[in-house]
Amino acid sequence: MRIALKEAEKSLLVDEVPVGAIIVKDGKIIARAHNLRETLKDATAHAEILAINEACRVLGGWRLIDCIMYVTLEPCPMCAGAIVNSRIKTLVFGASDPKSGACGSIYNIVNDERLNHRVEVIGGVLRQECGDILKNFFKNKRKRD
Questions:
Q1: Edge-to-edge strand ranges of the sheet holding 67-73
Q2: Catalytic residue among 9, 48, 113, 129
Q3: Is 143 exposed, middle or buried (0-12, 13-18, 19+ CB in 10 A)?
Q4: Is 120 a catalytic residue?
Q5: CB 55 within 8 A of CB 72
Q6: Local structure of 56: helix, strand or coil
Q7: Average pLDDT across the chain, whole number
Q8: Residue 117 among known ligand-binding residues
Q9: Homologous superfamily of 1-144 in CATH?
Q10: Is 76 within any annotated ligand binding site?
């Protein structure tokens, strides 16, 4: 999770919402990403989506079986759907998202029995640090705007 936090810090350098994600397979990081929605002018450029795209490229396929994703913020519905669709085995997230969290807070897409894949979820890892980077970003953003 500390490496995902380092990715989130990269978002700050380009004035993006600081969310970072990494994907691990067999104990090795195969992908890392941070939010780039504003930079890329792309609504789907969330850290999770970018990391999934990179991991698929590295592995040469769309099935990320036996992979673990670490992300600093609980994924939104779009990202939770991508996590399910890519067959990620385990999701580890830091801060919960009471406004759009789709891995237990508002929705639980990753464990919806109607879908063809379910994901093991471990939430609250480095919760304070993951939450603080977001709180500070929005606090500073409000001061500038």
A1: 28-34, 20-25, 67-73, 90-95, 120-122
A2: 48
A3: exposed
A4: no
A5: no
A6: helix
A7: 97
A8: no
A9: Cytidine Deaminase, domain 2 (3.40.140.10)
A10: yes
Predicted structure pTM score: 0.96
**Residue type for 99, please?**
K
The two tokens of residue 122 are: 């471990």
Residue 79 in marked binding region: yes
Q: Give the tens place of pLDDT for each residue, 50-75.
A: 999 999 999 999 999 999 999 999 99
DSSP state of 116: S
b/e map 27-45, b = 16+ CB within 10 Å = eeebbbbbbbbeeeeeeeb
**Which residue bears the tokens 């399910």?**
84
Q: Dihedral, CA atoms, 69, 70, 72, 78, nearest 10 degrees?
A: 10
